[in-house]
Fold this protein.
Amino acid sequence: MNYETVIGIEIHCELKTKSKMFSSSPVSYGQAPNTSTNEIDLGHPGTLPSLNKNAVKQALKACIALNLEIDTLIRFDRKNYYYSDLPKGFQISQQFYPIGQAGFVDIETELGKKRIRINRLHMEEDTAKQYHVEDETWIDFNRAGIPLVEIVSEADIRSATEAQRYVEKLRTLLVYLEVTDGKMEEGSLRCDINISLRPEGTLPYGVKTEIKNLNSIANIEKAVKAEILRQSALLDSGQVVQQATRRYDDKLETTVLMRQKEGTVDYKYFPEPNIPPIRISNEWISEIKQTLPELPDVRYQRYLDLGLNAYDSQQLILNKDLSDFFDTVAKQTPYTKILANWCLSEVLAQVDQSQLEHKVINPEQFALLINHIGKQTISSKQAKEILPFIIKGEQYDAIVSRMNILQVSDSETLNALVLEVLNENPQSIIDYHAGKDKALGFLMGQIMKKSKGQANPVLSNQLVLEELNKRKA
Amino acid sequence: MTILDIIHTTTVDERVNQAITKAKANQSQLNAMVNFIDPSEQIKQLNNVSKDAKLYGLPIVLKDLVNMKGTLTTGSSKILENYVSPYNATITNKLIQAGAIIIGKSSCDTFGMGGTNMTAATGPVYNPYDLSRMSGGSSGGSAVLVASGVVSMAIGSDTGDSVRKPASFNNIVGVKPTYGRISRYGIIPYASSLDHVGYFTRNVFDAALILEVLAGRDDKDMTSLNSPVPEYSKNLSADLKGKRFGVMSNVLNAIKNPVVLKQFNTLLDQLKAKGAIIVDIKLNEDLMHAMLPTYYIIANAEATANHSNLDGLRFGMQQDGKDVEDIMTHSRTVGFGKLIRKRFVIGSYALFIENQEFLFRKAQKVRRLIVEDITKALSLCDALIAPASNQGALKINDTKTDQLSSEYLIAENYMALANFSGYPSMTLPFAYDEENLPVGINLTCIREAEQMMFNLALGIESCTKLKDQIKEVQS
């Protein structure tokens, strides 16, 4: 039978802030366990939450970019449950009045633009991180209290590709807004995918499963495809889908059961008494609106206008650090197309993401390199040899002189070289005049070989053509 | 004798040693202290405090819910019997900055949940006026330490009437200011929306002085008020001319004790003689009867969440278990007494999704109606006035109380009105019942009208002449 896939996605996204949601502990990654904590994060008796204004600002930025209606009265609720990663025995969240409601994002699909509605965005605090080592549980409270937003889509997503595009779109948006670092592999952006199948043309939803712990964008598509296969196989053979939480196993290339769902949990939500409702001003919201950074869609259009093709533009957009680097260098070179190619090939191949993030490559020196490639005063082979030293922080000129990469542009020397090559290859001259363009390439190759790659290719080419025309019998 | 007099007429060592000696001597009879804190380090630190500090070298005690770094803070519970605070409550810092010397923690009902002080892990606290009677609670230890002359000021907390009731039973002044006036940061909670920091003194002047020390905005408590703190003690005035006292007929009708009623009427006459006006106030009787159940639902619902952090994992008493969940379950089962578990069950029940609308949400609606009613009443007068209780402290083994009678539902519990509304309220000495046990008088004013409240209290104090009452305990 043919089935329609119905997908809704919940995204938990850690906000980029200096301190935690409700305490002054620093938010930091890679610290020794349980060092970024204070009495509030550990839920000590008598502690009270104080709301981080910057976290609210980050949530507002996200609301604006996702076209959500903003509730200007900020209210929090308690979500009550016992778990060892939850120090207070409740999580401060926004159940009844989320900061943002009823928004949307548009994603690109094979059939064109598709609008995915967003049900809500609410603020909450992260839990501690647990490690299960054999029969022991280790808890790191550094993560406890880190500000989060949860973004819940409507069940508008219909395929694995759409699911991937949706998460990719949201992640890119939030990264451009500097709301989050969006690192799925480190868990700062986590998505739960609810997925069910129904016979094509019918309305009632099927039984859904939830896929958790997806650590990359690429795995989203794989996981959803695998789950669609699994569910449809079950349904085809007359079996039922069990409501459950599953995870994607990379090696098995399928989803595996984490835990069965037994009814719904009653979290006994009630308004947080220690945080009075806070009215935020429309002035503040419009101030945030006006100072939003350039969003990916706008940047994409700008790239098209610069003359880049759609594919390159999209690839650049998806990697904000790379795209930022491109923008910086582009100010210093007219060869934007070459620059884009180099960014998407050599830079990605030779530079790792954290170097890009920390802006390790000197843009002036890189621009010099691109300009020389553009003017054809060096070959791209030479440029590839130069790049590693630029990455290391050396100056272009110093590298070139040390490597003895000097362009021979002196026309007398070149002319001698051209004559020498032509005299040695009479057959190529005949071939050229017989209309075999390949012969020109061969002759150029011989010139480059003899000059050890140092002959100025533009000038040499010009001289060869002149000489060939002279010898047209 | 005011706190200022004490500071000017004794040395730091004299007053601190005297307090500790007396507290230890009285302990076997009052059972008021949970633990003592060696004062020597704090006395040394007085070098950093101006000699003019308001509480310079003054010995005080903290209710066993107030965190002070490096000291045992048990909440008079079993589950926190070994809990050493890793941080200071905001008021602990303020008290230390004002020169106070904290000599120990005083007993209370476990986590402030009770009105008798009978549920403290260390046992009941006894009333110095009759050692066979209870201190009242939940801040019973602090109350009897002030009443018996150990300290001239002690910190309490007040969620229903936990400062003002024991003040009444112990012939001293008990103050609960406006919600948010004193930071709650670092006070082990009972029910966050009803909890107030309060304190005991032996006269109205000291009551005004202490609020100057404790009050003020604290960024660590988002419910804390922004308004500046006046010098209440310097602005005191006992002038009652034209002041309007509202007498709640509902409360008065519920008070059946003729001895207390007679003295109340005498007091009203005295107030009138000083130019005050008595206004008759009738609150909604149905709401008054709904008050106590409303209180229980809100308080227990908040309490069950507030104490979910006590799971034995990160601090406090820990029981063994095969995994973390097991450790949590065992620690909570052993660490909480039957009464507390009952409160948690009631609180959780009120929050269940199927009950929340007609229990918790309804209680919040009733709370709003009650607050509207009392706000309207306070637009007709400067303060509501009534005896703080129908009689003096009950016997330790009293079980006769009919919990559905108006005497109990209203006369013994109406002071929670000031917790619902967050309005300032205080009790001061006023009468003795037929068994010669003290009964206090209660005042409640509109939000942030502490100065008015202290002024009216000073006027009353000048009528009753009951101040600086000390009931020595023979040791």
Summary: Residues 177 and 293 of chain A are 6 Å apart (CA to CA). Chain A touches chain B at residues 38-39, 42-51, 78, 80, 82, 84, 87-90, 137, 139, 266, 268, 270, 273-276 (CB under 8 Å). The first strand of chain A starts at residue 3 and ends at 14. The mean pLDDT of chain A is 88.
